[in-house]
């Protein structure tokens, strides 16, 4: 088989890494890819939003399966285009990817199909939004409706901050067209977890549990990022929480999307807030999380290719997915200034030393090759991901790898996985 992976981040490097291990696969391409994917696949200089270019490449090269990493090509209808031209593609069609592309659609869907979530309002004008803020109280969560690369969520701690955020999003257009409509919702207390599942629109296969770390600084302080690290399994997802998430979140959402005439095929990601035995849904993503994808794929025992093919073919009823008992931890190394304006072009050293460690992979996220060296080219630059017999072992090994890597201004969280340790 020939497989094309679309995207250029850490998630896509992890997908290429896992797909390339399959005995079913003869050749892997990645568009546009990064220096990490280039070691395992042939990179193709086609942008993720160049749908005609991607289609032509897939047709010309007789690609058997295209795996879509990021949300943008899904929301633009890449899967629709490929399927309409007789090509297999793993990912949600455009009308189903709306579950991530529009926070308002997602919240309305949850409300309609009784998927537990926070109380909310959807606003296009400032004054009604302020009135909702005053009724609901502080802290409060304000989200840009559209795609904002994981950064369009503000948790306002004061009324002044909440009002300024709404005004900025709706009037100042801080997130461009993504913020022309905002969702304002009550702040939920508890611990977050990432719950992902493969689905063919009817059957659902859960992935192992995981937990992301969104805030940029230790102790969940500072602004939200695309994710500063993740680990799996997440002890907060007990068996009873898992069962509740499957029944009340995944089952109702997959059935609801089918009832809406938007059958959901691909991987569905639910961000959950867990408070005791109480589970509420924060958001949905229409793809693998980044960085959750990295530790999850390192823990996946099964060959991923038959799973991806079964989803793309519309029937996963005969598929089983096995997981290693080991834990995995991914620590994201970020560029100076991230998640604000960040530097590019700094030479990265020590990646080869880190890769010498057993059961550790350095996934490239925001890198490029320049004059024979690997340099920083994004906010989140690398994802140092390690396996261990316990979460603590995996944490220790990941940070051993981190200690070997450097560039000017590099920063990372030092507490990835710490919440798992407090749960024993």
TrEMBL record:
EC code(s) of this entry: 6.3.4.13
Keyword set includes Zinc: no
Gene Ontology MF: a single term: phosphoribosylamine-glycine ligase activity
Pathways per UniProt: Purine metabolism; IMP biosynthesis via de novo pathway; N(1)-(5-phospho-D-ribosyl)glycinamide from 5-phospho-alpha-D-ribose 1-diphosphate: step 2/2
ATP-grasp domain boundaries: 107-313
Cofactor(s) essential for the protein: Mn(2+); Mg(2+)
Single GO biological process annotation from the record: purine nucleobase biosynthetic process
One Pfam family recorded for the sequence: GARS_C
SMART domains listed in its UniProt record: GARS_A, GARS_C
Coiled-coil annotated residue ranges, if any: none
Protein name: Phosphoribosylamine--glycine ligase
Organism field: Geomesophilobacter sediminis
Gene responsible for this protein: purD
